[in-house]
Amino acid sequence: MDIKSKEARSLNMSKxxxxxxxxxxxxxxxxxxxxxxxxxxxxxxxxxxxxxxxxKRVAVFVxxxxxxxxxxxxxxxxxxxxxxxxxxxxxxxxxxxxxxxEKLRCSGVRVLIIWECIVKSMMKDDTVCKNYLAKISDFIxxxxxxxxxE
Length: 150
What we know:
alpha/beta; 6 helices; 150 residues
């Protein structure tokens, strides 16, 4: 049973954005500070990644833990009402993510996934931020095909 009315829940859900979220802005800002240049939500590439480096052929996705079902994450909880709908929705999201990643990899694009909870920890602690940014930079400049920062 939901603790909010249907109208209040609808209002909450309508305010959730699919792009230009705070975690995305934070990652883009940090990458830009490092002198890296990129496209934002490029429609030229499969899956419209949050950040795309055309010269390096790297697609970066900043995934929300709730919507993309980050394993063992406190933000990836299940709603208590309308559970059948949400289970189907989450499964569809996960399948679409896997298809997009496979298509990108087959076309020679390297994929980096950064989870929302990691970005939140980066926002709170400079040392944590520097460590993760080093991993991100290493991946972008390397020849590795896939990295998931979780």
